[in-house]
Amino acid sequence: MRIPILRLGRILLTSVQTDLTDDDAGQLQAEVLQLFHRDVADGLVLDISGLDVVDSYMARLLNETARMVRMMGGEVVLTGMHPMVALTLVEMGQEIIGIQTAIDLEAGVARLREVIHARDKRTTQGRTTP
Amino acid sequence: MHHAAQRHEPKTSTVSDRVDAIVTIKEQTDILHARSAGREVARQLGFGTVDQTRLATAISEMARNALNYGKGGTCTIVTEKGQDGRLTIRVLVEDHGPGIADVALALKPGFSSGGGLGQGLPAVRRLMDHLEIDSQPGRTTVVATMSRRP
Ligand SMILES: Nc1ncnc2c1ncn2[C@@H]1O[C@H](COP(=O)(O)OP(=O)(O)OP(=O)(O)O)[C@@H](O)[C@H]1O
Ligand SMILES: [Mg+2]
């Protein structure tokens, strides 16, 4: 099964609506990383409101994806995580550390714009003006 | 959290046993089938959504191990009603793979022989009330239970 990735300017939007197998999730990760590698985006909003289970495999994959995107200069915001899923992850000791979260897609896009803006400001300040 | 992982529920107090689901695990989609079957059983017994999610997540870990390390297996979900009214969901995942060489080690957070994070079995232990592993070459059974009062 393929999960569509939408482009909104230089922001990628993807919404997982059904349960994913490990391979489906791995494929989504590869496609996302490919897009950042081609430098078509500054950030990704990943909506997981369709996931009623996030197990250790999926948690690791989400963490890893966010880390790799950041290494390629992008940002990730995770949205729509069910409260039950969040609670279970905390109980498992698998907190999704280091991923920005927001309540829904709309809030996620706003959050992502802020994060990207803040980062751009930092990098501009860091540079020496010619 | 249910750290009372080693508590024993005496089988003698059981008044009824029922097999609610048997899912054969031979490909990745079977992991999804097994965990949604578990959630459905819990829902029908009146377990809350937190317990449904804990159970489905634990089944996901158990079934994935059977697939990845045991070349597939079977997930059986049994419900038991105790004399005192306690409801227990028992998940039994069995495979006929090489077995777990050192069960105590496999239960340690961070131990993985397959490039994982080694979080699967520790997660099952935390999410469920009881976990028991019996493993030898050719037959591994992982049994986890969750009990609630209605
Ligand atoms: N059914 C099984 N047959 C053989 N070995 C197993 C089985 N289940 C678990 N193991 C062994 O126990 C180890 C720990 O399992 P656990 O599920 O905790 O972590 P993992 O599967 O390695 O990684 P993770 O679940 O975090 O992705 C495995 O790496 C494997 O060596
Ligand atoms: Mg595992």
Automatic annotation (TrEMBL), chain A:
PROSITE patterns: STAS (PS50801). Pfam families: STAS. Signal peptide: none annotated. Residues 1-93 form the STAS domain. It comes from the Bacteria. This is STAS domain-containing protein. It comes from Lichenifustis flavocetrariae. The lineage of its organism: Bacteria, Pseudomonadati, Pseudomonadota, Alphaproteobacteria, Hyphomicrobiales.
